């Protein structure tokens, strides 16, 4: 059952990165949209993510619950030493969720819209940036349980070039996923071309930030190169991702709009795979060479047992409903409304 | 303010903020299901308009509740890491299940909000009901987790170690039922009175009277039934608290001295130094009856509780008085309302009854906040009753005071924006929602 729980943890992180990521990315795309196109983009975006945005962010809650129930020592350590980036991320989540809902549901459309838009766009950038920083600092070996000063314990645990680069990389991945997703969400040719350009831009930015992560890792003395390319799984995954990237662009130019989503999702899955598999089962690396391991720092057997059961049980209810939701709105998004009166 | 008090204040603020949104998110779907049902059955457009107007409001509250709930799941660790490190694996079961319930709620809400005219009308109606049921289940599960802190079970605490963990037993701890029942009814009463009050104000202003009258009735009936049922669940809770948390009960009643045939104290100013209460009204024997079902029973006083294990007496006592007082007033108003429905129909359109409801708008929510203050402050100094002290659970990170200021700023501004938006929603009812059938498709 332990491996079922670990599988769910990994899957929840992946789904949050993909679905929540595309959701954040929609705001990032809006940030890079000229004012002339803004309201059109907002409409496409709203139709695309409106019905599912709340569900997308549930994956974060599932991740947190699995951590604090199943692996409380890991949750507690991260909560203490990454308090500041977690708080900033939370403020981003508050700002973004409420601004997104407010701008649609405000009964009067006036100057307030501009404020909601700005908050939505900035928080769409800040939140994944800090999510990435948190992810980066969990493996940067800068968390120091022996630290004696405030700065060492609570600031330098996450504020370093490597973690910030991972944060930027995360932002570009989100923008990339959103652009690829939105290409399939619009019926207009001009709009599609615009999202294609955005996707290309985000793709280049992601490659650039990815390179930056390697440079920063080298500068900080983190053997990232070895983690990624030092074993056959990493090599295979990276090669497969690169191949799928080439294939994806070929198909995009050919006008295929839906299969490319699968390929983009595959690339991100491979990236998460290579960055987690090397240290498995350790998910947090500490400064003194210590680590927090999913196998050693887990809850009691009975807890893991019931957590796994709850997750399996939950999937039976959630997954079909979620697929039906996405399917319904995909299928019906462009269909004319049926009138019932 | 030191860091410990700052952490407690931040937690209180976050919970106090979240509870309002979660009550509304959990109860409004049932109101909407009723008006939606009337629309499908009677084909009267006003019911559809009411449902849509409510659902717009609910979407705002739901989004705010969802994000403030996400924040709480992190704050538990950010502020109380030592508590979560030990308690997480024991009381986490309801949270694991709550994840599912809340996920279903979010999915069903997607169907409901965006599904108008897209699905079979009854399928659409059912998705609305699922929003309500899964919201209620989430609420009950979270309260069950809180109940565990009052009534820890499902483990053995031996030499500082937590052993023989049984998460299922922890979830079904002794307090879960009485607390969950009390809170669920409270959510209906508070939301019912708040919504009814707002519509009563609009009727008094002669704005869209039919629309607001229909809305008022649905909310008022729910709220009044809940207010009349609440004393029963309150009695259950009181007896439970008397048995397992005598210190909390003693603080609620400012009951300083253990005695037989203890009297129930109404109001009064507790004087902790001299261990007496000034000015209160005392009803002989009634506290013994309420706590133990027997007028002669002995009720433990604060004199039996070591001073270091006593909760803050004044806050707990005042909060309890506020909760009970408002509960009684709401009951009285509910009695009047049902009397009007049953015998004196002309009261229903009278200004005085609507005025009373208008005044009672915040009563339920103030009572909910006061009730949670009793539960949480009354449990102090423990975070896990009798096992772990709150002061031992707090994060080692200094400077929490700044975090508290930050959260206060965020929540205060968020509350202001929500109030502002709600005001705009209500003001726009005539233009956006209360429309004749032909122009209705403008609303989406």
UniProtKB/TrEMBL annotation, chain A:
Sections of the chain in a coiled coil: none
Subcellular location per the Swiss-Prot or TrEMBL entry: Cell membrane
Major subcellular location class: membrane
Segments crossing the lipid bilayer: 6-32, 53-74, 80-99, 119-141, 161-183, 204-226, 232-252, 264-286, 306-327
Keywords: Cell membrane, Membrane, Transmembrane, Transmembrane helix
One GO BP annotation of this record: aerobic electron transport chain
Listed name of the protein: Cytochrome bd-I ubiquinol oxidase subunit 2 apoprotein
Organism phylogeny: Bacteria, Pseudomonadati, Bacteroidota, Cytophagia, Cytophagales
From TrEMBL, chain B:
UniProt keyword annotations, A-Z: Cell membrane, Electron transport, Heme, Iron, Membrane, Metal-binding, Transmembrane, Transmembrane helix, Transport
GO BP annotations, alphabetical order: aerobic electron transport chain
One Pfam match: Cyt_bd_oxida_I
InterPro entries: Cyt-d_ubiquinol_oxidase_su_1
Subcellular location: Cell membrane
GO cellular component: cytochrome complex; plasma membrane
Keyword hit for Nuclease: no
Chief site of localization: membrane
Transmembrane segments: 15-39, 59-80, 100-116, 123-149, 181-204, 216-233, 318-340, 352-372, 404-423
Any GO molecular function: electron transfer activity
Membrane topology classification: Multi-pass membrane protein
Entry similarity comment: Belongs to the cytochrome ubiquinol oxidase subunit 1 family.
Protein name (database record): Cytochrome bd-I ubiquinol oxidase subunit 1 apoprotein
């Amino acid at each position: 059952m332990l491996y079922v729980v670990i599988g769910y943890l990994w899957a929840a992180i992946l789904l949050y990165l993909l679905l929540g990521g595309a959701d954040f990315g929609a705001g990032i795309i809006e940030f890079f949209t000229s004012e002339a196109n803004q309201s059109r983009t907002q409409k496409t975006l709203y139709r695309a993510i409106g019905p599912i945005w709340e569900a997308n962010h549930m994956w974060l809650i599932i991740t947190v619950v699995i951590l604090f129930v199943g692996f409380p020592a890991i949750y507690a350590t991260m909560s203490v030493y990454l308090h500041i980036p977690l708080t900033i991320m939370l403020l981003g989540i508050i700002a973004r969720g409420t601004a997104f809902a407010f701008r649609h549901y405000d009964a009067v459309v006036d100057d307030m819209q501009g404020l909601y838009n700005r908050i939505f766009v900035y928080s769409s950038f800040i939140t994944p940036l800090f999510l990435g920083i948190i992810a980066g600092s969990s493996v940067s070996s800068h968390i120091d349980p022996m630290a004696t000063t405030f700065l060492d314990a609570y600031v330098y645990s996450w504020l370093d070039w490597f973690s910030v680069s991972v944060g930027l990389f995360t932002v570009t991945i989100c923008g990339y996923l959103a652009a690829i997703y939105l290409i399939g969400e619009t019926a207009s040719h001009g709009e599609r071309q615009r999202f294609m350009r955005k996707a290309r831009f985000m793709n280049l930015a992601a490659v650039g930030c990815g390179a930056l992560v390697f440079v920063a890792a080298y500068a900080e003395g983190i053997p990232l190169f070895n983690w990624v390319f030092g074993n056959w799984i990493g090599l295979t995954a990276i090669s497969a991702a690169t191949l799928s990237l080439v294939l994806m662009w070929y198909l995009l130019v050919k006008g295929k709009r839906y299969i490319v989503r699968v390929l983009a999702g595959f690339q991100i899955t491979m990236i998460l795979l290579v960055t987690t598999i090397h240290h498995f089962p350790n998910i947090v690396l500490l400064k003194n060479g210590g680590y927090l391991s999913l196998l050693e720092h887990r809850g009691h057997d009975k807890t893991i047992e019931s957590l796994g059961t709850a997750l399996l049980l939950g999937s039976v209810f959630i997954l079909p409903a979620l697929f039906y939701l996405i399917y319904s709105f995909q299928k019906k998004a462009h269909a004319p409304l049926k009138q019932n009166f | 303010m030191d860091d410990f008090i700052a952490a407690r204040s931040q937690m209180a603020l976050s919970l106090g903020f979240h509870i309002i949104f979660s009550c509304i998110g959990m109860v409004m779907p049932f109101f909407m299901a009723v008006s939606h049902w009337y629309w499908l059955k009677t084909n009267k457009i006003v019911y559809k308009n009411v449902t849509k107007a409510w659902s717009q409001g609910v979407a705002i509250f739901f989004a705010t509740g969802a994000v403030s709930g996400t924040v709480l799941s992190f704050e538990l660790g950010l502020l109380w890491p030592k508590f979560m490190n030990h308690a997480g694996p024991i009381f986490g079961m309801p949270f694991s299940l709550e994840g599912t319930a809340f996920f279903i709620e979010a999915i069903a809400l997607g169907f409901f909000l965006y599904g108008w005219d897209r699905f079979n009308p009854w399928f659409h109606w059912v998705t609305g009901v699922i929003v309500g049921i899964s919201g209620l289940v989430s609420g009950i599960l979270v309260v069950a987790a809180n109940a565990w802190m009052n009534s820890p079970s499902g483990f053995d605490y031996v030499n500082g170690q937590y052993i023989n963990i049984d998460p299922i037993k922890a979830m079904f701890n002794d307090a879960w039922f009485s607390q969950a029942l009390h809170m669920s009814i409270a959510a209906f009463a508070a939301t019912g009175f708040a919504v009814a009050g707002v519509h009563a104000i609009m009727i008094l202003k002669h704005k869209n009277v039919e629309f607001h009258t229909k809305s008022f009735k649905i909310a008022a009936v729910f709220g009044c039934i809940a207010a009349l049922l609440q004393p029963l669940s309150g009695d259950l809770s009181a007896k439970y608290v008397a048995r397992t948390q005598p210190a909390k009960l003693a603080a609620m009643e400012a009951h300083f001295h253990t005695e037989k045939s203890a009297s129930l104290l109404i109001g009064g100013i507790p004087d902790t130094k001299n261990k007496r209460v000034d000015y209160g009204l005392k009803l002989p024997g009634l506290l013994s009856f309420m706590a133990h079902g027997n007028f002669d029973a002995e009720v433990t006083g604060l004199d039996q509780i070591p001073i270091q294990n006593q909760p803050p007496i004044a806050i707990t006592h005042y909060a309890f008085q506020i909760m009970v007082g408002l509960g009684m007033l709401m009951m009285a108003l509910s009695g009047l309302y049902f009397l009007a429905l049953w015998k004196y129909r002309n009261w229903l359109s009278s200004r005085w009854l609507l005025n009373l409801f208008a005044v009672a708008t915040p009563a339920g929510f103030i009572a909910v906040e006061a009730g949670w203050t009793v539960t949480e402050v009354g449990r102090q100094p423990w975070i896990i009753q009798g096992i772990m002290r709150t002061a031992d659970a707090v994060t080692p990170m200094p400077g929490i005071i700044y975090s508290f200021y930050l959260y206060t700023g965020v929540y205060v501004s968020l509350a202001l924006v929500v109030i502002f938006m709600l005001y705009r929603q209500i003001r726009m009812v005539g233009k956006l929602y209360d429309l004749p059938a032909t122009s209705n498709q403008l609303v989406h």
